[in-house]
Write a structure and sequence with these properties.
single chain, 163 residues
Length: 163
């Protein structure tokens, strides 16, 4: 059996006039996140975790921000691409663990909906997906409410044929 772990990390600053999208959902907040795409920091971290486990680089390699095709794109496109690479390489996703780091908005009321959204995108049962949140205890840019960070881990499994 071939078991691989990957991690992903992403940050985006808050920006007025944009929707806040996390795990593919629009979350009520006074600001959204700045970025070339929809700036879904959680999906970006999960996507990078999957690419990392595969050894396939990062999101910028597959969807460069210099390419205007990805301007304001829904980040589920990136995550679906990572999932398709798993399948093409005979890997299945065992589980995803995602931690969103911010002071506000409070994430807990949305975690069940976020898991459902990710389940649909990943085509993975909900009990294989964890979404949780923490603060940075008012320290750093997230503590000053300047943006959101996210860290994610993906575990991929490929059944190998006996030699």
């Amino acid at each position: 059996m071939d078991i691989r772990l990957g991690n992903g990390f992403d940050v985006h600053a808050f920006q007025k006039g944009r929707n806040l999208i996390l795990c593919g959902l629009k979350i009520p907040h006074s600001m959204g996140l700045a970025g070339h795409s929809d700036a879904d920091v959680a999906i970006h971290a999960i996507t990078d975790a999957i690419y990392g486990a595969l050894g396939f680089g990062d999101i910028g390699k597959h969807f460069p921000p210099s390419d205007s095709r990805w301007e304001n794109a829904n980040s589920d496109i990136f995550l679906r691409h990572a999932v398709s690479l798993c399948l093409e390489n005979q890997f299945s996703i065992s589980n995803i663990d995602c931690t969103i780091i911010c002071e506000f908005p409070k994430i807990a009321p949305f975690t069940e909906s976020m898991i459902k959204s990710l389940s649909d995108i990943l085509e993975l049962v909900e009990d294989r997906i964890s979404v949780k949140a923490t603060t940075s205890e008012r320290l750093g840019f997230t503590g000053r409410e300047e943006g959101i960070a996210c860290i994610a881990t993906a575990c991929l499994i490929r059944n190998c044929k006996p030699v």
